[in-house]
Write a structure and sequence with these properties.
Helices cover 74% and strands 0% of the residues. The longest helix is centred in the C-terminal third of the chain and has 27 residues.
Length: 220
């Protein structure tokens, strides 16, 4: 999700959700589209403000739907994405906040959004520095990422994030296998923009693996 550290707010829609004028599915879909736009197409100079606006919107929706995990998940994803943009030790605060929000979402529904709680937690634990700087932990990362795969074994995100972890651990053959699965993942209704961007990321990582470790991958 982001490298190691040292690592137009849609208020009307959120207000509509609070007033009961829009279903949660519509609101959550909007959060997802806004994240994909910010993450994949917005210029670098606009990403930080885009993510922070998304955090605010997700918090508003979460207040309106306190028994649903999806708004919390998007709040955490936006926080983690903002941490990536910010970088450095200052980003640790956002990463820790994202972890706490994800744990709150897990307590509500650990299977929401096809296991996104666990794929995001796993990526956080994989990328944040370990003690004494941060809370990073490769064992916890692996456990969370495998939980995500157990929930959604064919999913694009579950396979991509596990592949990214395996690449960082030097298991290039297994990483390539999960990247292949990510590229073959079924389309997600309403998440087409995110699917396009994630497939591009998966293909870029797979291409890099083949360029650097082609001989090893040929033996798999």
């Amino acid at each position: 999700m982001y490298p190691k550290l040292i690592f137009g707010c849609s208020c009307a829609l959120a207000e509509a959700a609070m007033a009961g004028d829009a279903s949660l599915d519509v609101v959550v879909a909007d959060l997802g589209h806004r994240w994909a736009t910010t993450h994949y197409t917005a210029p670098e100079t606009a990403k930080d403000s885009g993510y922070l606006a998304l955090v605010t919107s997700a918090q508003q929706v979460a207040e309106s739907y306190p028994r649903r995990a999806e708004p919390l998940i998007w709040e955490a994803i936006a926080l983690a994405s903002a941490a990536k943009v910010e970088g450095g030790l200052a980003a640790l605060g956002k990463a820790k906040q994202a972890r706490e929000v994800l744990l709150a979402a897990e307590a509500i529904d650990p299977t929401a959004m096809q296991g996104a709680v666990y794929s995001t937690l796993g990526s956080l634990y994989a990328k944040v520095p370990g003690w004494p700087i941060g809370f990073g932990d490769t064992k916890k990362a692996k456990a969370y990422l495998e939980k995500a795969l157990a929930i959604n074994p064919d999913g694009i995100d579950a396979n991509y994030f596990y592949a990214d972890y395996l690449n960082d651990q030097g298991d290039y053959s297994a990483s390539a296998k999960h990247l292949d699965l990510a590229l073959l993942a079924p389309a997600r209704a309403g998440r087409e923009d995110a699917d396009v961007g994630r497939r591009r990321e998966a293909l870029m990582l797979l291409t890099a693996l083949k360029e650097k470790h082609g001989a090893e991958l040929a033996r798999r």
